[in-house]
Here is the input.
Amino acid sequence: MTFTRCLPTLKTTSLVTFVLFISLPLIQMTMISFVATLPNPDIEVGKLTLRNYSAIWTDPSLRAAFGNSLAYVMINICITVPVALPAAYAFARISFVGDKHLFLAFIALRVTPPVVLTLPIFQLFSELGVVNSVFGIALAHCLFNLPISIWILQGFIAAIPKEMDETAFLDGYSRRQVIWKFLLPLIMPGVAVAAFFCFMFSWVEVVFARILTSTNGKPISMAINALFGFQTDIGLVMAFTIASMIPGAILLFVMRNHLSRGFKIGKV
Amino acid sequence: MKERTNIGWLFVAPALLVLGLVGIIPLITVINYSLFEIFLLDARFWVGTEWYEDIIKSQRFWASFARSTLFSTLILIVQIPLGIAIALCIPRRKFWVGIVLAVVALPLLVPWNMIPFLWLSLLDPETGILGRALQILGWTPDWKQSVIKTWAVIIVMDVWHWTSLVVILCYSALTTVPLSSYQAARIDCAGPWQVFRHIQLPKLYNVLLMVILLRFMDSLMIYTEAFPINAGGPNGATMFLAVDLGEDIKAFNYGPSAARSVLYFLIVLCVAWMFTKAQAKLDDERSP
Here is the structure.
């Protein structure tokens, strides 16, 4: 049984290799971000510097991009979670006419590529007056965040025994009270995981963000695009990308135990 | 048994409303446009299914379709087993789990338009870590001329970007395996393969189905990341479905791009339908 004995070593080695592979581009990015990449009177090209990071602070458009990204992700989560919760409850607990088909429709919308819908969404949102604002992006991102949140939350609800609901019904609680008082506190980790996934998919999205913000409300990804030009300061681009990952990294660190505790993702 | 009542529609109504606004209304608009020749949005002519016929008959569409399908298949072949394997390798000690998951998920936080530039700078023959290291192994700076090398770069980039999602979802499914199952397996002297096959894999089925759907569709419609690597080249060898559509939209060909969009949505719908069929089959097997 040599294979079984080697297994722990093998596991650690493959994990370390994978983590190295993951970090390689990130290391490259960090290295470039600390180097001056454009000719400048104060500093030679190729010298170590913190200029790139201080430039993020001093550039108002970059700071505004940060604010915009945070704003639209927050708005998106505030729309997605309350809307997804009752739907997830319905899919987990209630059998109604057409439930399977509806779930298929939701999943199909999740996997519909945003490019397919760019033109009509732009027109529709122009009519509604939400282009060039964080609200428009927040709304457009519901297209993929809402189905994913419903899927995650319904897994969490399905993992809670039905008997709990039934006992509460027998005790005379209404459905709304059962959801609010008993179910919601139990699935709080699920809400956190769903919100985290919304953040993750929304923060880095490009296609909707581009068409919906031509003049105003540009998020981080579009601010990066704007940095590319005739003479691109790659150092600044890399530093800005790293800065843009910090909120997500903090969230990831806070969420790590929720993610690792595991969530039951089930069928409908 | 679930409760049988159509009150369920009341609960899904808000979601239906939001998705109707951002998904279903735009889709209907696209279907409408796809049947017209549009110069300006106010001046249009009915052309019926002409655009559809053009696309279906064009070599270009089928070539892109074949390329995208091949790409997605390769992505699944690499990412799914790799993701499962890494999820199995994550230690059970609580301290390390958090750290490993947090590090592994970092690629998911990089803005999508930066991912190709990150890899291009990594492969730079003069300043890139990988570019310099690979030169020793015979990797030449003119890799953009080679179809296979360009494909390899895009696939490795996608593996880097998305395997983490597979790892996170698989890992969270693995944690639902009760400890008693492992103990029972130890008593029966089951080997690691048997433990995986009979205890861990069944717990993964539902998650895997979803992950496969997400990864298949998202890589089939890869757009933002693939194009900047080599501008669809060499000789259009990396022009994928969504890249074609993006070019159409940029050229303001409303009618043809709408028809293309509708066709893509039909592909999406087919795959999603197969997914629900597979899920139903899985449920039947489990609860006979």
